[in-house]
Automatic annotation (TrEMBL):
Record-annotated HTH lysR-type domain positions: 1-58
Family to which this protein belongs: Belongs to the LysR transcriptional regulatory family.
PANTHER family: HTH-TYPE TRANSCRIPTIONAL REGULATOR CYNR, TRANSCRIPTIONAL DUAL REGULATOR HCAR-RELATED
Name of the featured protein: LysR family transcriptional regulator
Alphabetized InterPro entries for the sequence: LysR_HTH_N, LysR_subst-bd
Keywords from the UniProt entry: DNA-binding, Transcription, Transcription regulation
Lineage: superkingdom: Bacteria
Any Pfam family matching the protein: HTH_1
Length: 301
């Protein structure tokens, strides 16, 4: 069915006069009459009838009008939405680790919006663990995720954008509590509270110990860094965790790790097999330009 003819039909139904409808459509009256005849032939029923000098809808035309209006409205809305997307507007769906949601992601999103005041851009924010974020990215639930580096077999593009320093935390009465910094090998004799398997930080801490050929004594395992900090404060063991402001509020000692040298990197990741909307791609490029070089964005101790 010719969409132009459908628009002509709706306009004639509103105006109820061929000459005036043709003028408003910027076409000739014969062209309008031809379009309506073609539409009626295709549908097999008359849509209009004469009523003096005016034209009125038949009962078939009345039934068809609401359908035509809904169809054109849905089509116009779809076209408008796609045109906005093409202009770099629309929704940007971000997934990230909770620690990045405290400052890093909110600052970048606010700065991106400030840099694009003439565009209608919205963000959808979702925090989770690394594996859940990567699974969501694979399922196209996110445009971009910010987390630990994915495994090479996931075939995703991962670019380091910021980092977080790891620290050793111990109870206040622990033999190591008097130190301000520590070689991690000094922590080996003591039982550790460790990140559970499946946590993005499990591999990070494993790699840290493996870098000098060591295996820690694991006393307890759990997924949440906040829970680990709470257990350390109560004397259940010591732990390597990312630095977070919560540590300052608990009764424990924070030791900077002097060796082996290591900082946890966070990556901006997207699925190269999936089309990235213009708005999401603009934010990706914004992060690359601003998220790496500005020290105020770093998640550091």
């Amino acid at each position: 069915m010719n969409l132009d003819y459908l628009r002509y039909f709706v306009k004639l139904a509103e105006v109820r006069h061929y000459t005036r409808a043709a003028e408003q459509l910027c076409i000739s009256q014969p062209s309008l009459s031809h379009a309506i005849r073609q539409l009626e032939t295709e549908l097999g029923v008359p849509l209009f009838e004469k009523n003096g000098r005016n034209t009125t809808l038949t009962r078939f035309g009345t039934d068809f009008l609401s359908c035509a209006q809904r169809t054109l409205t849905a089509l116009d809305d779809g076209v408008t939405a796609l045109q906005k997307s093409a202009r770099g507007e629309g929704l940007i769906r971000l997934g990230f680790l909770r620690v990045l949601g405290i400052r890093y992601i909110p600052q970048l999103a606010a700065q991106f919006l400030a840099a694009n005041p003439d565009k209608h851009i919205q963000f959808d924010f979702h925090s989770d663990r690394t594996q859940a974020l990567l699974d969501g990215l694979s399922a196209q639930a996110f445009d971009l995720v910010f987390c630990s580096k994915p495994a090479p077999n996931m075939h995703m593009t991962a670019i380091p954008v910021t980092q977080q320093e790891l620290v050793l935390i111990v109870p206040p009465n622990h033999p190591l509590s008097h130190q301000h910094s520590i070689d991690l090998s000094e922590a080996l004799p003591y039982p550790m509270i460790y990140f559970a398997k499946g946590s993005g930080l499990r591999e990070v801490v494993d790699d840290l110990f493996a870098s000098f050929g060591a295996v820690p004594r694991i006393a307890l395992e759990t997924e949440e860094d906040q829970v680990i900090a709470g257990l350390v404060a109560q004397g259940f063991g010591i732990a390597v965790v990312p630095y977070m402001d919560l540590l300052l509020k608990l009764d424990l000692c924070i030791l900077k790790i002097s060796a082996p040298p290591y900082k946890r990197e966070f990556f901006m990741i997207h699925n190269t097999d999936v089309f990235l909307s213009p708005a999401a791609d603009a934010f990706r490029r914004f992060v690359l330009a601003h998220g790496q070089s500005d020290p105020s964005h770093a998640v550091n101790l």
